[in-house]
Amino acid sequence: MNIKDMFCPKCGRPTQAEGICERCRFEGTHWFSCDPRVCCIHCPSCGALKKGNTWTDTNEERSELAPDLVRSAVHIHPDVKKATTDIRIEDMSTNRSRAFITIKGVLYDDPVRATCETEIAWQKEQCDRCNRISGNYYEGVVQVRAHDRIPSPFEVQMAAGIACEVEESLQIGGERLSFVSDVNEIRDGLDITVGSQHIGLLIARRITAELGGRFSTHPKLIGERNGRQLFRITYSVRLPKYQKRDVIRFRGRYGEVIQVDPRNMRVFDFSEGAIKVVKVTEVEKLVGSARNAEDAMVAFSSSDTIGVIDPVTFVTRECIAGRGHDVRAGQHIQILRDGDQIVVLR
């Protein structure tokens, strides 16, 4: 090795490695920089943050966002080891804050320390979702109706709840423009106004999966954008004539609907304690819903016959309990009324 390689070519001091010495490297390294200003663009309606051209939902408060914004303004040389930043923030106004930063680290085995300041600008801008909602923008309507009847309060509540659940899952997944802008209960059912065709399709599928029935789509051309046709779609959900937990009379016996298909139903037969397939045309009468059953006490039990104390008249009436019932005197059961007949539920 040549002796010249053992001296720093810049200061002439001896060095253990080729090139300039560590002191010269230290003195010639601008080891940090601090931007004088950082901006935070947030939506005043929902609190979403804008980064570049992308909006992101967040639940963080201003005090939680500020430290990360300040750190993004500080740029530290990669050769600095064990770098730390101490931040103190003071609010100057509703739209401005000032941050005082202390930076510490180790550069080429020498400790370094510096201070700097930066300003945080809090800017308000309405996000893409809130802009569409405030402008009454929508891409579809889910219309919930029922066949030959008006949807029950339970079905209306279920459909509205399903819409909220689907919206929440899509929002968590990052689909900000898949929103429900309005849920309107009308005389014939429920209208759910949605911000995207995707959420409308998912809501229609979920409602029919949970409540039965089927749905159809009806697109309507509303214009063009950049040479592309724009459609607004109506998702027509038609709930079945009978719903789950309905108690019906069929073939001279009673049963509870547990599943509804377009033409057939799976019904729990109270008299036999078994599940049967019943055609819609075989239904003789809709007795009521098991959700609205009355509570009654058993006075006596003998084979398939039980004595039920009528909760209205307090008169003991004999009823057929059906197979599978194991009730004793003093127990409470659920009943419905079919005229003067008392129907004991499973």
Q: Kindly state the percentage of residues in helix.
A: 10-25%
User: What string, H for helix and E for strand, traces the elements in order?
Assistant: HEEEEHEEEEHEHEEHEEEEEEEEEEEE
Write down the domain tally: 3
Q: How large is the count of helical segments? A: 5
Strand order of the largest sheet: 4-3-2-8-7-6
Mean pLDDT: 85
Instruction: Count every beta strand, where a strand is a DSSP E run of 2 or more residues.
Output: 23
| Uncertain stretches of 5 or more adjacent residues | none
Strand content: over 45%
**Rg calc:** 36 Å
Separation of termini? 98 Å
Q: How would a crystallographer describe the biggest sheet?
A: 6 strands, mixed
Q: Helices and strands: which structural class?
A: alpha+beta
Walk me through this protein's architecture.
By secondary structure, this protein is an alpha+beta fold. The chain has three domains: 19-124, no CATH class; 136-239; 246-344, no CATH class. Helix content is 17%, strand content 47%. The strands form five sheets. A six-stranded mixed sheet has the order 4-3-2-8-7-6, with helices on one face. A five-stranded mixed sheet has the order 10-11-9-13-12, covered by helices on one side. A hairpin with a 2-residue loop joins strand 12 and strand 13. Helix 4 crosses helix 5. The protein is elongated, with a radius of gyration of 36 Å. The termini are far apart.
